[in-house]
Design goal:
The protein is α/β, with parallel strands linked by helices and 280 residues long. The chain has a single domain, classed as Ribonuclease Z/Hydroxyacylglutathione hydrolase-like (Metallo-beta-lactamase, Chain A). 19% of the residues lie in helices and 24% in strands. The strands form 2 sheets. A 7-stranded mixed β-sheet has the order 6-5-4-3-2-1-14. Strands 7-8-9-10-11-12-13 form a 7-stranded mixed β-sheet, covered by helices on one side. The N and C termini lie close together (5 Å).
């Protein structure tokens, strides 16, 4: 089994549409510095299958990154109904891939969202996708992989929000790109980190002071500096389990040689990178 990181940025990717500030304007002509919206793939090389966790607007580039595995898309798990996490479903439709009953694993409100909105419902009517309803904390079992959704607090205007625990080869991997804050989630964050082997955690903002043009209270996410502070009592080995993902274009953790990037590494934490691979 392989976990392949397909994207590390917030929903809009990096550089970001409409941003004329230096954070984005400086990288338009440097494709090697671009980042796609957050997503990972779990690849079962024995069974020649792979599963996507979130399906982003940049799905075509992300599927291209998986071509060398010579595996087929066997299912998609979606965390919630914000566009960077589900909009890639559109590429499965008649106009592009015209897939045949790709299983899409979603929570009840997310299922209702798809069934009650165009153009997503056309994917169901055309048998491009098959919706499979998940339940909180209930296993979905495959040949070499088990997936468990768990609900977290987030801006749930359109659907609930979940993270996923992936169990494979005696390893536990967490994919949790979006959460409002750690206080509202009735889980001990230190224990959560220690109990899992690799954790892709919400790193949207390094420090909320980086947001200048919007009301940051309306886009709640934990700050990386706060997350690191909460986990500061952990050993360096345990801290390294945390890989920050879903980085906003304003977040200097996207950019090496910045104070933010260097501080995260100095404190013993990790930053998810494009095309990073974990083999089990």
């Amino acid at each position: 089994m392989i976990i392949h990181v397909l994207g590390t940025a917030q929903d809009g990717g990096y550089p970001h549409a409409g941003c004329q500030n230096l954070c984005c304007s400086s990288v338009w002509n440097s494709p090697e510095l671009h980042r796609l919206p957050s997503s990972i793939a779990a690849i079962d090389q024995d069974k020649k299958k792979f599963y996507l966790f979130d399906v982003t607007p940049n799905i075509k580039e992300q599927l291209y990154r998986l071509e060398d595995y010579n595996c087929e898309l066997a299912g998609i798990f979606i965390t919630h109904a914000h566009i960077g996490h589900y909009l890639g479903l559109m590429d499965l439709g008649l106009e592009i891939m015209n897939t045949k009953k790709i299983p899409v694993y979603i929570m009840p409100r997310m299922r209702n969202f798809i069934l009650n909105n165009q153009p997503m419902i056309q994917l169901v009517k055309n048998n491009n996708i098959e919706l499979i309803e998940l339940q909180n904390n209930q296993n979905v079992l495959f040949d070499n992989l088990s997936v468990i959704p768990f609900e977290v607090p987030h801006r749930n205007e359109l659907s609930e929000t979940v993270g996923f625990r992936l169990l494979l080869s005696d390893q536990s991997i967490i994919f949790l790109p979006d959460i409002d804050d750690w206080n509202s989630w009735k889980v001990n964050l230190e224990e959560f980190v220690v109990d899992n082997d690799i954790l892709f955690l919400d790193g949207t903002f390094y420090d909320k002071n980086e947001i200048k043009l919007r009301d940051v209270s309306k886009i709640p996410h934990p700050e990386i500096i706060d997350t690191m502070d909460r986990l500061s009592a952990l050993s360096k080995l345990d801290r390294k389990r945390v890989h920050f993902i879903h980085l906003n274009h304003t977040n200097d953790a996207l950019r090496k040689n910045t104070i933010a990037y260097k501080n995260i590494i100095k404190e013993g934490f990790s930053i998810a990178s494009e095309n990073q691979k974990f083999k089990f």
